[in-house]
Amino acid sequence: MDILEIFDRVDEINLRVKELERKSFYLEGFYLRIQIIEFLVQRAIVHQEEWVRKLINRGGLKYIGNNEEALKGKTLGELIGLLSEHCKDEQLISRLNGINSFRKRIVHRLLEDKLPLGSIDMKRSINY
Fold this sequence. Notes:
Largest sheet: none
Number of helices: 7
Shape: elongated
Number of domains: 1
Order of helices and strands: HHHHHHH
Strand content: under 5%
Oligomer: single chain
């Protein structure tokens, strides 16, 4: 699936997340959104590096960037770091880092068994 296909399916994805939340599957809905963000960041990096590769190769130099498979093995934090090398929108990078920090807090609370699953308070604390 390409980045444009994701944008074409935003309404479908949002309906899926709302259905999960309606059934009190808040974590599943949250992680579906995180997966989409991760995918979009990966695709943005791939598109940027393809553009850079084409420009540099025109000059007779060889550009070795990240291939798509290598990006799939990177954490969201690593992906945001790579994206920040191509994207100078500090607000976007800051918001992505905030989402990643929030995701890590949720994971650590789950691992430490401090987050009651299905709690309505948890739903109120998740700001997408």
